[in-house]
Every structure is written in structure tokens, then in C-alpha cells.
User: Which sequence fits this backbone?
DNA sequence: GTCTATACCCAGATAGAC
DNA sequence: GTCTATCTGGGTATAGAC
């Protein structure tokens, strides 16, 4: 998870294939953008998180904006892939009677995307920049894709799909708020988080404790 | 709603009580922060939106950060006041049998907060900055207050309160995405927005069309 | 492909006049 | 109380060496 992952595993900064570096920077950027938002994040923070130089980050993607779009598109890819595989996974459960097993299964897998640190937050940050002329359209298209998947592929009605997304946005918001920081201190927060993440609170807390 | 509101109503930039100016700047800041987020907004953009000079905006609140906190606190005040008055308003309806009339009524009034341009978005932007050492705590406290109101004053169970907030966050997200921009062009978007705002789509569209 | 050095611009904040 | 002028820092992007 940190910096070394070369097969031959040399010193940190050396001998790593270029596309691996690219992927590494993309992951680092996802974390940084998720935490501070597009404007709040600096290419320098991304660079430091990835263990490369700031100008190199810019060089690789052309601009900060292009980097953010890349992060956003990667996040959307992973989101849709997760939806797809959750759908497959739930197909047998659905056959054996359970009406909204599909919904439950997708929800579970959605929550597990939290492990991909910053991914859901970067998405959410993008959603809040709908007024931006270049980020906005990509973000809107992403939301549409998600909704259409739920409606057309997962067979939800408009009401179910809407509610599903609402629960997702609530989860994203609670994570963005760092609400888990108050889990032990505030009984109210504990109650709310237990409600929002029936089975995944331990995951959330473990991610919180793994923070820098 | 725009710039003039002095009783004696002189030329725009003149003779306005200081606290009126302050309120005006606060409203302008709410709009700008809502649109671009805390980091994306500039004190200069706020100043121009309010028709005052940039240094004056900083002078008035001490710093950009303090201004944002002021915006956030005003938004939370208005939110809670809206909740309170919706609760009162719904008390008779609740007496006459309708089980979740309270919930419906609060939801309606929540959606009407859209008219206070930028208010829900500024809140949402704050929610996405939970990692910020000064904004985070205020934002978390705001979310807690809202949840506790729904649970303790409006008499919702944890599940209802959570779902209510989820629908709220979904609404905020759709507004942040500027999803209404595609209302006519994309049937899918129309369907989603009609679902999200049963009765308030016209309001949303009118606000969209009133945009700069 | 990756770094160091640096140019350049923009934004927040300050000084001080009115 | 409000403005103009300006300082200063920090952040993106470029140039160019290795």
C-alpha cells in the first residue's frame, strides 16, 4: 500500500515502470483530492504523497485540471465495475426469492469502495463542482451513468434507484465530514453511523485509524 | 434580493448601515462559497458579488476562514430555524392522523431553502471539509444538531432520521452537480429530479434560470 | 522519465488615505 | 466605514539538465 511494489523491489525512488508510477500518482491524487477538494489540493501535496516531484506530476497529466479529470474517470470506472460485479454476485441470491437482495449486495460492495482511499470522496468533491465548465459535465455524466445502471441493469424503479443513491450520498457525506472521528465520544454519532453502515462500521473505523 | 434595500434607497454604493452591509456580504459569500467551495472561492469574487472592495471583505471578518465560518453558522441557524417552524406548522396535520406528515412538512420546507441561494451548497461544501481542523468540528456539530433535532424534536427513529438526511444530502448533491441544467435535454435526468423533488422542480428550474 | 531551478501569476492580507 | 495601493506567500507551470 505505501511506496514499494516493484517485482525486484529496489530503493523507493528507483526503477519503476512508467505506467506503474502513473497509477501510483493517480492513487495519491485520489487521496489528496478526496481530502481537500479540487481547489484545496495542491499538485505539490499530490507529488509528496506519491513520492515524486511536483513538476513531474504536472508533466505527466498536462495540468492539475487534467489530473483531476483522470482521477474522476478512474473513480467512475471503478464504481461502475463494482456495480457490475455486485450485480453478478447477487444474481443467485435474487433467483432464490430475496426481493431486494440485489440492492443490498450493491450497497455492500459500494461501502467497500471506502477501502480505495479517497475514491468516493473525490467523486463527491466532483459532484460539488457542477458549475465548473470542464469538471461539471463529466461529473453529471457519472451520476447519470450510476442512476441508469441501477434502473436499467439492476432493475430498480426510479424511486428505489433514487433512494439508493441518496443513501450513497449520505455515506459519502458522513465520510467527508470525518464523522467517525466522534464515534466513541458522541453517542449520537455512534447511533447515526450504525444506522448508515449497518455492517461496515468496523471498516470505517479501521480506515480512520490508518490515517496519516 | 439584489443590491438595494436601504429604507431611503439611495445610490447602490452609498449610505447603508454597516450591519446591512455585513449581511449583504454574508449573502454574497454564501452564494460564492456554495458555487466554488471554500478553497475555490476568492475573497475578491465575494467582494464583487457584494459590490464592495476585496480588502473590506477581509477586514470585516478578519480572514477568509472566519468569513466561511460565519457563512456556515448563518446557514446552520437558518436550517434549524426552518426545521423548528416546519415542526410547528406540521403540528396540526400530525394531530389529524397523518403519520409522517411531520417528515413531509420538514422536507418541503427544507427544499424551500433552495431559494436562499448557496445556503444548502455552502453547508454541503463544509461537510466535505471535515478534515479541516477549524471547519471540520463546526460542520460535524451542525450535522449532529440536525440529526438530533429530527430524532428528539420531530420524533423520528434513527432509521427515519437517517433516511431523511440521506434524501437531503441527495438533494444537495443534485444541486451541486447542476443536474437541472440537463433537465430538458436528458429524459433520465428529468426522471431523477422529478423523483428527488416531487413538488419542487419548478422552484429548482426557476432558480437555475435566474443564474448569472 | 524524472529531477532542480525558476518564472509568473493570483489571492489573502496589510497600510494608510479619505 | 470603506477605498486604493501594495506586499507577500504559495501554487501551477515551464525550462532545461541529467
Assistant:
Amino acid at each position: 500500500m505505501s511506496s514499494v511494489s516493484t517485482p525486484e523491489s529496489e530503493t523507493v525512488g528507483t526503477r519503476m515502470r512508467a505506467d506503474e508510477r502513473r497509477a501510483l500518482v493517480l492513487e495519491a491524487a485520489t487521496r489528496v483530492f478526496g481530502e481537500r477538494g479540487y481547489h484545496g489540493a495542491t499538485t505539490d501535496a499530490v507529488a509528496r504523497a506519491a513520492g515524486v516531484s511536483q513538476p513531474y506530476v504536472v508533466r505527466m497529466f498536462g495540468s492539475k485540471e487534467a489530473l483531476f479529470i483522470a482521477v474522476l474517470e478512474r473513480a467512475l470506472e471503478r464504481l461502475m465495475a463494482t456495480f457490475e460485479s455486485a450485480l453478478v454476485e447477487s444474481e443467485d441470491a435474487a433467483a432464490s426469492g430475496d426481493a431486494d437482495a440485489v440492492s443490498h449486495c450493491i450497497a455492500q460492495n459500494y461501502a467497500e469502495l471506502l477501502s480505495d482511499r479517497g475514491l468516493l470522496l473525490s467523486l463527491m468533491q466532483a459532484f460539488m463542482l457542477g458549475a465548473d465548465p470542464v469538471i461539471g459535465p463529466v461529473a453529471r455524466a457519472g451520476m447519470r451513468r450510476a442512476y441508469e445502471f441501477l434502473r436499467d441493469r439492476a432493475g430498480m424503479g426510479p424511486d428505489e434507484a433514487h433512494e439508493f443513491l441518496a443513501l450513497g450520498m449520505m455515506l459519502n457525506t458522513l465520510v467527508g465530514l470525518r464523522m467517525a472521528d466522534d464515534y466513541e465520544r458522541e453517542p449520537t454519532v455512534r447511533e447515526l453511523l450504525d444506522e448508515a453502515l449497518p455492517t461496515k462500521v468496523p471498516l470505517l473505523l479501521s480506515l480512520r485509524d490508518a490515517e496519516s
